[in-house]
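Quick one, T. Sequence first:
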Amino acid sequence: MPSAPKIEREKNGRIECTIEFSAEQVSKEKERALQKLAAEVNLPGFRPGKAPREMVLQKIKPEDLLEETIQALLPETLKSLLEEHKIQTIISPKVSLKKADPLTVSIVFVERPKVTMKGVEKIKVEKKEHKVEDKDVERMVAYILQKHEKTTPADRPAKPGDRMTMDFWGADSEGKEIAPIRTQGHAVVLGSKSLIPGFEEALVGLKKGDAKSFTLTFPKEYHAKELSEKPVTFHATVTNVEEVALPELTDAFAKEHLQIDSAAKFRDEIRKSMIMQEERIDRTRREQELMDAIRKATHVDLAPELVEEEERGLLEDLQEELRKQSKTFDDWMKVTGKKVEDVKKELEEKAKQRLALRLGIRELMEIKQITVSDEEMASTVTEMLAPLSEKERKEVEPAYVKGERAYDQLLWQKKVEKLFEGMLK
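Structure tokens:
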């Protein structure tokens, strides 16, 4: 072990240890480092590791030898520091060179910082009562009945309720075609209001083979911003008109086509399903509001190294997501128009928010004494692996043994669920 280290502890959990190694220690490990690097040096006429020391030294960069020496000194040093000073680091230590002679390094550990929660008792996330109007149920019924609709060709002028198929294109105020608008074989039920205001109304009265031009202004809130509030002249040609007949929801139809006893029971099931969907959406909203509230209630001083570690994780997540989309980071930068300093600032802010939330949740777990028993975890793991085949289960199961990373992640998830369940009542 080197001479007594200088230990500096900060309130944010950052611990900087300055270590000065003796010449004897450095010499011993430097020799080992040299032997290791020499084995990788190829010199004509000599087998690897058998060349004269002077010739090998000429081929090895001093900075590489110094780095390898430091790496050789670190394991025992880190072990001693952690044990003797009872350091409980939450990220990998950061090592940097302070002086080459005498060899002096700085090792920064980061422990879990002190967290203060303010106003937690005032956190209250409103729970909405969910009701589904009859008109919403009927709209869903109509949507389902559409799957059983019958159509017949209509050799007459189209009217609301008919399905029309058409080709169309659009031109700007100067008469130039707007390429993205050109569409062929587009089908629409007239009166469904699925197209921009005025479009379907302009088609009423047309027959198969008819063509019509008309000018409409796109809505302000249109999703394609380049067309927002812009006048466009459409040129449409009708290729087909069909009369649509929807079946009536009767008890007989419900039994034959929907495998349910009656029309009334089918409507009840629709209502229950819609309420459950609303509750799931509201649950997501409430969880997000709760997380925002916890983050705001969390007061913590974060060590720079901890923030940087989180930033790296966020950047890796972003790059992985881009890889899935077959995009590069440079492509993404060009599309978004962001500069490197903008991305750095955004990642830093997001990292701080994520850390505050995670540390706040952990603090609340301890305050509220949230626990998950081994029996609960065993049941959760069994339930999670149940849908897998026997082969898949055997491959995945070892990762969910107590002490493994996947097990710890699942344990954290279960604790979060318990915490949220208690706070969202």
